[in-house]
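pasting for ref. prot 1 ->
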Amino acid sequence: MIEVKVIGAGLAGCEAAWQLAERGFAVKLYEMKPLKKSPAHHCNDFAELVCSNSLRGDRLENAVGLLKEELRRSGSLILACADATRVEAGGCLAVDRYGFSAMVTEKIRSHPNITVLAQEVTQVPQGPVIIATGPLTSDGLSDAIGEYFGNSKYLHFFDAAAPLVTLESIDMEYAWFASRYDRGSADYINCAMSKIEYNEFVQALATAEEAEVHGFEDKNIFEGCIPVEVMARRGVDTLRYGPLKPVGLRDPRTGLEPYAVVQLRRDNAAGNIYNIVGFQTHLRFPEQKRVFSMIPALHKAEYVRYGVMHRNTFLNSPTLLDHTYADRRNPLVAFAGQMTGVEGYVESCASGYVAAVSMAARLKGEPVPDYSRKTAMGALGYYISNEYAINFQPMNVNFGIIEPLTERIKGKANKNLAIANRALEYLETMRKEEQA
């Protein structure tokens, strides 16, 4: 039985290990927890969700919804566990974070072809190997990867986690349960703000004292995860057109659309802890409590976790990796997860899946499957490997990187749905060809 090493037991590493094991390979999965943890790690289970429990939209008209459906139909371990531990969140796929991680851990540890080794890896092993150590790769392995690629420069950005508050501490006199446009069930707590309250809040937020973060500069922030205080500094209405937008919501006290709305999303299956949506921050903890208490519904909020900033590291993938996440020089050394420049939990899972399936095909001497730009999974791989990319930055899946339709379809939702259906048909064709 051929042995393959997988380094890192996050979403990408667990998905890669599972797909290889299911295809008959002996997998050695290396994970440095619990012996050593990064600043973002809090529990000992695998596939830990550190920023939010939401795996985002689940509709096919949404690119991440398409990506999840592609993974479901492809036999993804991560999506199977996510669906099994799902909690209601309107049109999003959200999970009980701890239940999800526990299930992934149990599945991995109980697979007869997977051996888990609790140790830190500080050298790039000889292939076959998939390295999926995430955006917080330890300094030892980070340096080793740099040496492996001839000291090619890493790129750096900062990521952020939003605060969590208890349900019982939210003042529901100023809030109500609803989903935007009444889609799905009423799973969000909406905290209304008047114009005066909002303007005072933005002013306080923009001038609040930040925690010290080495090397932090506004221009280096990944645009998909901007700290809320940075948004406040960009203009008084920036937040109202971003995470505090009131569109599609009506305050039952007035029957009118509020001036601004802070949304809270359930963070666990019990429903007693809520995430302040879009409030990634690197303010000092006392400042978070002071400023966020200016939101009427949160004036007595109890925080079970304050927002934090993390250092994230990713490869200059367009010059180093191909569309299967493999080293262009040696395809039996591959990478997966956010360190490749895919951004997001679901995207990380997809990269682990593609890297593993491609590695398995190479080791068996079979043709490497081409998911192509017609699928969300394939489009991500081609995005991170685009040799013509200028100023390469991490990317969430979106319809802009998927191959466009040849025919013109009226309406954005209709066009996106047509792209999604084409992607799923393409996957089905691939499956039938593989069986044949």
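and prot 2 ->
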Amino acid sequence: MKRLAFSLLILMTLAATSFAAEGTRANPRNMDFPPLRFDIPKAERVVLECGMPVYLLRDPELPIINITAIIRTGSVYEPASLSGLASLTGSVMRSGGAAGVPPEQLDDELEFMASSVESGIGPDMGTVSFTSLTKNFRRTLQIFSDVLLRPDFSEKRVDIARKHLIEGLRRQNDDPKEIAGREIGRAIYAGHPLGDTATPETAKAITRQGMLDFHRRFYRPDNMILAVSGDFEHSAMVRELNAVFGRPSATKAPALPEIPQPAQVFAAETIYGSKEVNQSVIRMGHLGVTKESPELHALRIMDYILGGSFTSRLTMEIRTNQGLAYNAGSHFDIGRRFTGSFIAQTETKAESTAKAIGLMKDIIAGMTREPVTDQELDAAREYIINSFMFGFTSPASVVIQRARLEYYGYAPDYLETYREKISRVTKEDVLAAARKHLKPEAFKLVVIGDATKFDKPLSEFGRVRELDLKPKVEEKK
């Protein structure tokens, strides 16, 4: 009996000690963690015989190879009378056949190999990319190069793409959010190619020959950069690429047209589009900055605090405190080649339209009146620095990131110094950046909704220009 009691006493003592130790270890408030470290993966840069820069990153984990070509082109180079030409050219490059292979045959062959080839053209960049199993790489690479350099632009596929564009334009005023997004861009970039949008008239004027001419103007090996990742052997890949893209061209690539930066004009404007809906769509903003701005890193911090997070000032006040909207936020887009934009947005019930607009403007103006708090600054810096690594989640994202930085002319050490520069931003830096680059008094304000239900007339915010949202294309019989 004594032996049993003694044993129980020992067990109880050990258990108490164990629980005490466990309780100490389990308290996260008493735990220390080493600083988060992340080293940016390195990609090798080589130059092909034709003069094309290539970024390479080998990853044998899966038998897959990815290649993306970045081309110096964009819709900014299309004539205003042919708005939509670049976008259609980018899509029909892939869908319209290449090097004499009909579109249907090309589709079937890629599907059989489980390969994909995609193409597109944006405002200031074109891309053609492919994904292939390693065993089918050589044939997929050939198809990729044909789509990139020798597209056929099948007349049938051109006609289909043009009809799709016209049909999309016929329906472009169905969605209030799409209307607001289009019109705020047109207002901010008025008079600049970035502000041009396709119309039924420009779409009808686009021809197969126009696509061929646009393609030939820009799609040359000496006018692009490649990003290559996946399961390959370095020297073998370089040989394959040299074999496909050949020697330097006998003719020099024509210089790209000089497209000026948008004029730095800041003038308030109120734009209204009538839609019989219960919810108003609100967009407001103006021109932003380019990547050369010395306030770039302070603007990143300001962007997060003002409207770029779920705990931002716009979200917390308009959504949480006032209950005026489910979504409210803003974004300061840093322009890479051309000046970017600052846009704030929300959607609210018609009866609180003016209240939401006034509150948004006041919150934005508040960024220019006094410094942000220490808590806001610390949270923004921590989030931006810790989320930096998510821009490099795959080998493909690493090489594409490197290629894009060269394409847009960033400093070679931009990525390596980014987090350090973010960590050095002060409250005074954020305030100075806000005062310099936020101009609520000069906002372009776009509101789509039913003015008969608004709490106040939009004329409270200035002279109103009303949009004509009537269909521009006849309805199909």
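The first strand starts at residue 44 and ends at 47.
Residues 2-26 form the longest helix (25 residues).
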